[in-house]
């Protein structure tokens, strides 16, 4: 992708392809597959050294939990109202679930069943304990069901199970090709009218590679190029408000496999029967 960026050491790249070549080697190199596996291993290894707490999974910014959940809830409610309805049982998948923060504070308030995917074992065990019936956070009609300790790049959701697949603060761990292949595989997990929700840090332009935790912060344009490659359409999007200024901006996208219909009652910017201007 012809998009310039830099890494956390300040090294500049003319394109994301150049950056990926630095990380993994040239396409077809004998060591490319090994280098990519090592990249993922180091990424998980970074998080294995992080405390299984809200402050830990939020990088020392535990106080952003409340505005994060509030903005996500407003966004989710509009999706449920417009596409899913409330007259049937709903199921969600929480990808990169960490300690179950989003499942506990948001998803279980709107979905009857939630499954969690997380490659860091001590995070997932903390989620399992926090979301157990003994801790009073679940009920017979709203519960966490399955806990998958699998890396996202290797995970395939159960076919036709989910109304929403929620992907927050984890897709930056995936290389572009695995980003695309994950969403292509994950489409089978959606029910009719199902939606992916992607919530992520946004670079002002291009990308920023974090050399320590092996993650890439992509720009809005970068994401849109990848969505195209995935065959996904932006149903709606929203900027997160209320976070500290020193953090990356955060954006939330609702993505669908079908082309969003034009809202009933809206008009085209071009008047009927009016010729286009010659430029």
TrEMBL record:
GO terms for cellular component: cytoplasm. InterPro entries: MeTrfase_NTM1, SAM-dependent_MTases_sf. Signal peptide: none annotated. It comes from Papaver nudicaule (Iceland poppy). It catalyses: N-terminal L-prolyl-L-prolyl-L-lysyl-[protein] + 2 S-adenosyl-L-methionine = N-terminal N,N-dimethyl-L-prolyl-L-prolyl-L-lysyl-[protein] + 2 S-adenosyl-L-homocysteine + 2 H(+); N-terminal L-alanyl-L-prolyl-L-lysyl-[protein] + 3 S-adenosyl-L-methionine = N-terminal N,N,N-trimethyl-L-alanyl-L-prolyl-L-lysyl-[protein] + 3 S-adenosyl-L-homocysteine + 3 H(+); N-terminal L-seryl-L-prolyl-L-lysyl-[protein] + 3 S-adenosyl-L-methionine = N-terminal N,N,N-trimethyl-L-seryl-L-prolyl-L-lysyl-[protein] + 3 S-adenosyl-L-homocysteine + 3 H(+). One of its GO terms (molecular function) is N-terminal protein N-methyltransferase activity. It comes from the Eukaryota. Residues 8-35 have a biased composition (Basic and acidic residues). GO terms for biological process: methylation. Its EC number is 2.1.1.244. Keywords: Methyltransferase, S-adenosyl-L-methionine, Transferase. This is Alpha N-terminal protein methyltransferase 1.
């Amino acid at each position: 992708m012809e998009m310039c960026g830099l890494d956390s050491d300040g090294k500049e790249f003319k394109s994301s392809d150049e950056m990926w070549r630095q990380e993994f080697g040239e396409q077809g190199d004998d060591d490319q597959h090994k280098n990519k596996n090592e990249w993922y291993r180091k990424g998980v290894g970074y998080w294995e050294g992080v405390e299984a707490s809200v402050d830990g999974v939020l990088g020392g910014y535990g106080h952003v939990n409340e505005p994060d959940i509030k903005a996500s809830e407003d966004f989710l409610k509009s999706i449920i109202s417009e596409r899913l309805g409330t007259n049937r049982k709903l199921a969600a998948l929480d990808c990169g679930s960490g300690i179950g923060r989003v499942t506990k504070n948001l998803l279980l308030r709107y979905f009857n069943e939630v499954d969690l995917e997380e490659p860091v074992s001590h995070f997932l065990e903390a989620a399992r304990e926090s979301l157990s019936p003994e801790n009073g956070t679940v009920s017979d009609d709203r519960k966490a069901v399955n806990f998958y300790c699998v890396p996202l790049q290797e995970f395939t959701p159960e076919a036709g199970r989910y109304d929403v697949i929620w992907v927050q603060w984890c897709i930056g761990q995936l290389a572009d090709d695995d980003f695309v292949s994950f969403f292509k595989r994950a489409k089978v997990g959606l029910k009719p009218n199902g939606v992916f929700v992607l919530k992520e840090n946004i670079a002002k332009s291009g990308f920023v590679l974090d050399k320590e935790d092996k993650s890439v912060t992509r720009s809005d344009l970068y994401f849109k190029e990848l969505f195209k490659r995935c065959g996904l359409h932006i149903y709606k999007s929203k900027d997160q408000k209320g976070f500290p200024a020193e953090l990356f901006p955060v954006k939330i996208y609702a993505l669908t496999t079908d082309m969003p219909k034009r809202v009933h009652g809206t008009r085209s910017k071009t008047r009927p029967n009016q010729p286009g201007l010659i430029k």
